[in-house]
Design a protein that fits this description.
Elements lengths: L11 H4 L6 H7 L6 H14 L10 E3 L2 H6 L5 E3 L3 H6 L4
């Protein structure tokens, strides 16, 4: 069996390594990495620390590190995470 291509191409801008600032680096590490890897590491952090809301799985309850990332908010929707990442990368 041969693999069929989906027709979608990876956006090279998403694969370009970006530099996290100090707030984001406290969660994902200080080395430059692609946005996709940063998002994955944030989700790994959320799952490891049990920060996904029990009733509404789309909601992330922030601990102290995530509050700094999320501008002091107690919780955010999972759909807002990319917006907050963008504010903390160079």
């Amino acid at each position: 069996m041969s693999k069929e291509k989906s027709g979608r191409k990876v956006n090279p801008a998403l694969m370009k390594p970006v530099q996290p600032d100090e707030v984001l680096a406290a969660i994902v590490g200080a080395e430059a990495q692609p946005r996709s890897q940063i998002t994955k590491k944030i989700w790994d952090y959320v799952k490891k620390h049990g920060l996904q809301d029990g009733r509404d799985k789309r909601r992330i309850n922030a601990d102290e590190k995530l509050k700094a990332l999320f501008g002091g908010r107690e919780f955010v929707s999972m759909f807002e995470v990319a917006k907050f990442i963008s504010q903390h990368i160079q």
